[in-house]
Amino acid sequence: MNTSVAKAPAVVTPSAPSQSSEQLQKRLERARALAAAHQLPAAASEMESVRALVKDDVVRNSSTLMLMGIYLEDGNYARAESLLEETFKERAQRKDASINTFFALAGQAVNGARAHVARYRLFGINVSSQSMPPEAAADLDRLRSLLERMYAQGKELVRENAKANDAFALLEDISGIRTTLAKDYEDRGKWETEHSLARARLATLPTEIASISTVPAMPSEVVESATRSASQTVAAAVAPTPTELPKGTPLASENKGAAPSVPPLGSGALEVGSLTEKAINRVTPVYPQTARNAGVSGLVRVKIVVDENGAVAGIVWAEGPMLLRQAAQDALRQWKFQPVIIEGKPVKATGYVDFGFAR
Question: Which of 26, 153, 305, 307 has its CA 20 to 30 A from that of 32?
Fold first, then answer.
């Protein structure tokens, strides 16, 4: 009697067709073009397909970075968060390589969050308003949730002592945006405290810190082309006005090869968040006629440095509708504030003031 047991037939799964570098480049270009045309679901689908097919880490990382930008632009925060979670969990196996990818991805997310907040301001919407339409409120709540998850991931990296400089820089960036998105005074106070703590901790670390908002370039022609276009698009959308430097400061073109002789405006100053309530002398901005004629309105936020006497020492940056920024800055230069006192002594401080322009 034959007692052998018949073996189940092997299941054969067709393998995905291999893709040449030229084919991958064409698909990346197509995904980028779809994103530029604001066909975001189609762009995401194409990039997800490329990401699933390739085994090369460089191309995969690039597609992941582009996907992050697309998902944030589309308001798909759940998928954006899943990309971060996936990379964050890989750090146990891939260690430094995965952590570097996570920081690049987090930088893309930070840029996307800034661009999203800037869009609300462009339409004159106060992101802390309690009376906005439910669709906008739900959108901002999802963005807050993404930022808070990223913040928790950054804190975990700090506890693991994994690239502490970059981790604290990430915490500073996230807490700054999250402060902007505060729901109420209590929420704002919490995140202003977190922001101040991150800045204070950064001050005690070595100064070789690259901006977490800058996505590092990848060593591949295909990847560099794709990532550069995405990064430039985001940077153009949210770039603040240049920092004002003291008169006589040499420009880079006038001092090639030399180390900067003047530290960034506001360095060494205490971060205090909103300065509006500390003002003792205010000047109302003049609504520019060109902005009125163009129908431009909205919120302008100006970050400044206040000296030990409470006078405005300089403008760090301004964001909001371009036609309104200069008027806000011109008025704010004439403001006077209560000096910030630490241990009985006045200190230099940095913070922001918001101006609402309504027609």
Answer: 153
**Sheet strands (E) in the chain:** 270-274, 279-281, 298-306, 312-319, 336-337, 340-342, 345-347, 349-357
* Residues 322 and 283 placed together within one structural domain of the fold: yes
pLDDT of res. 207: 41
Contact call for residues 347 and 308 (beta carbons, < 8 A):
yes
- pLDDT tier, 325 (very low <50, low <70, confident <90, very high otherwise): confident
Rounded-to-integer distance, Cα 163 and Cα 95, Å: 11
**108-143 pLDDT, tens digit each:** 888 888 888 888 888 888 888 888 898 999 999 999
Q: Examine the domain organization and report whether 268 and 188 are in the same domain.
A: no
Residue 85 sits at φ, ψ, to 5 deg, of -60, -45
Same domain, 32 and 145: yes
Q: CA–CA separation, 133 vs 127, rounded Å?
A: 11
Q: Say what the pTM is.
A: 0.53
Number of other CB atoms surrounding residue 188 within 10 Å: 18
Distance CA 348, CA 222 (A): 47
Q: How far is CA 168 from CA 62, 87, 163, 174, in A?
A: 24, 19, 9, 10
| Higher per-residue confidence, 5 vs 169 | 169
Q: Label residues 63-83 b or e (16+ Cβ within 10 Å = b).
A: bbbbbbbbbbbbebbeebbeb
